[in-house]
From TrEMBL:
Compartments where located: Cell outer membrane
Keywords: Cell outer membrane, Membrane, Transmembrane, Transmembrane beta strand, Transmembrane helix, Transport
Similarity-based family: Belongs to the outer membrane factor (OMF) (TC 1.B.17) family.
SUPFAM superfamilies the UniProt entry points to: Outer membrane efflux proteins (OEP)
Parts of the chain that traverse the membrane: 25-46
This protein's GO CC annotations: cell outer membrane; efflux pump complex
Name of the protein: TolC family protein
């Protein structure tokens, strides 16, 4: 019976050990999974970075307030075309010396010094309800309204310009961080490869196959690459600081970015399409055209000083005057409806000089038009050429990388079989490192060129 119990307990013990191992393995798996998931979740994507920057950037906040200010100015201009209604009232004491008259009735003695109302201070209460509606202002109201409307749209274009600039700056900083991280990784890979080669050279030196000079040459290259690695890490720190600055974070805060999918191929856009898009969407160009319209309306506004102003006015009210000592009280109603006008016949040549100023400002805007248009075209063409150049560099660098890998493979085989020297391996490793650096630089330059095109045309097309 004891033997039977022992035989049962042994497999149960072994089974329990397996369960413990199984549970431990599952625990380790989930721990690693959650660590990875948390790390991935905390990594910022490009769209998230742009969203954070747009919410915190002072340039964006200032542009938003300018839009609100322009909205208020537009509302003020609109108020000029609708009636202005007011209610006025007053209460207090008044005194006015009463005029006297001589009053006579035929057949009766003449009454001299008869007062029209009691000669004392009176309690006075008055109120009036009035309305005023401009009828004609020589185009002043209409042109002021159009100028305010154009100013509102200019403020919106300035806001869009600020958004485009922040988006471009964040995109550029984002890819510069990823590019710097890749440069650090490539430099470390090159150092690891050199360290392996150094071990092989030292082994051959001990065997008497190579000289001490070969060992020193590899150590020198390794030291040089160490300097490059230090510079790459410093460049990465600067890139992260610039990125944090754009997002309103502490400059020394750690940065974890989600690598974007790099597409090296160009999407077949030509310069004519880019230019037409820029002239339709570029905020600076649209704002300039709106500013030109304001200049044209400013001329008309200046000419409005030569015309009369007409307005309809109406009012109704009541005035109550009480003379307590005399026991007299007047309760008088009043109203009026009229068309009022004014015409400035001479203002000391102010109006002609306003016209002169408005014409000069408009001509100055016209003189700048071609300059601004050429500036937009130059920026678009420059961004397009950058994209074409970077795409071609990617293709060339991919070929160079493949050739460098093959060259390094043959150099390592030849060195291992004592056919070639260590110098050939060093040259091949340097060529591969340069090819990989050029390749990844070109790939990130493609993305930067796309961002530059989007900024140049004023909308996201790539």
């Amino acid at each position: 019976m004891r033997l039977f119990s022992f035989l049962i307990c042994v497999p149960m013990f072994r089974s329990g050990s397996r369960i413990i191992k199984y549970i431990t393995a599952i625990g380790i798996f989930y721990f690693c999974f959650f660590i990875f998931a948390f790390s991935a979740a905390s990594a910022l994507t490009l769209s998230e970075s742009i969203e954070i920057a747009l919410a915190k950037n002072p340039q964006i906040v200032a542009a938003q307030h300018k839009v609100k200010a322009a909205t208020g100015k537009l509302g003020q201009a609109r108020s000029s075309i609708i009636p202005h209604i007011s209610l006025e009232g007053a209460f207090g004491k008044i005194y006015q010396e009463s005029p006297t008259i001589d009053f006579s009735i035929p057949g009766m003695p003449t009454m001299e010094g008869l007062s029209l109302y009691p000669d004392e201070a009176a309690d006075s209460t008055s109120y009036a309800f009035s309305l005023k509606q401009p009828l004609f202002t020589g185009g002043k109201i209409f042109r002021s309204l159009r100028m305010a409307n154009a100013g509102y749209h200019i403020a919106n274009e300035d806001f869009r310009k600020a958004q485009n600039e922040v988006t471009y700056n964040v995109t550029s900083a984002y890819y510069n961080v990823l590019k710097a991280e890749k440069m650090v990784a490539l430099t470390k890979e090159g150092m690891d490869t050199l360290k392996k080669h150094l071990k092989q050279v030292e082994m051959f030196h001990k065997a008497g196959v190579v000289t001490k000079a070969d060992v020193l040459r590899v150590e020198t290259e390794l030291a040089n690459l160490k300097q490059a690695e230090i510079q790459a890490r410093n460049g990465l720190k600067l890139a992260k600081a610039a990125f944090n600055s754009l997002l309103g974070k502490n400059l020394s805060e750690d940065v974890s970015l989600s690598p974007e999918i790099l597409t090296a191929e160009e999407k077949g856009v030509d310069s004519d399409y880019l230019l037409s898009t820029a002239y339709s969407f570029r905020p600076e160009w649209k704002a300039f055209k709106l500013g030109k319209k304001i200049g044209e309306d400013s001329v008309g506004l200046a000419y409005s000083g030569y015309f009369p102003n007409l307005a309809f006015m109406g009012s109704t009210g009541k005035t109550i005057t009480d003379y307590p000592a005399a026991g007299t009280k007047y309760d008088l109603d009043s109203w009026r409806l009229m068309v009022a006008g004014s015409w400035n016949l001479f203002d000391g040549f102010e109006t002609p000089n306003k016209v002169l100023e408005a014409h000069a400002n408009l001509e100055a805007l016209k003189a700048q038009e071609q300059l601004i248009k050429d500036g937009v075209a130059l920026e678009v063409n420059s961004a397009h050429l950058d994209l074409e150049s970077a795409s071609e560099r990617v293709a060339a660098a991919e070929v160079a990388e493949n050739l460098a890998k093959r060259s390094l493979h043959y150099a390592e085989v030849n060195f291992a079989t004592h056919i070639d020297t260590s110098l050939s391996v060093l040259d091949a490793e340097a060529a591969l490192h340069k090819a990989q650096t050029n390749l990844w630089s070109a790939k990130y330059d493609v993305e930067l060129a796309k961002a530059k095109i989007n900024k140049a045309v004023g909308t996201n097309i790539l």
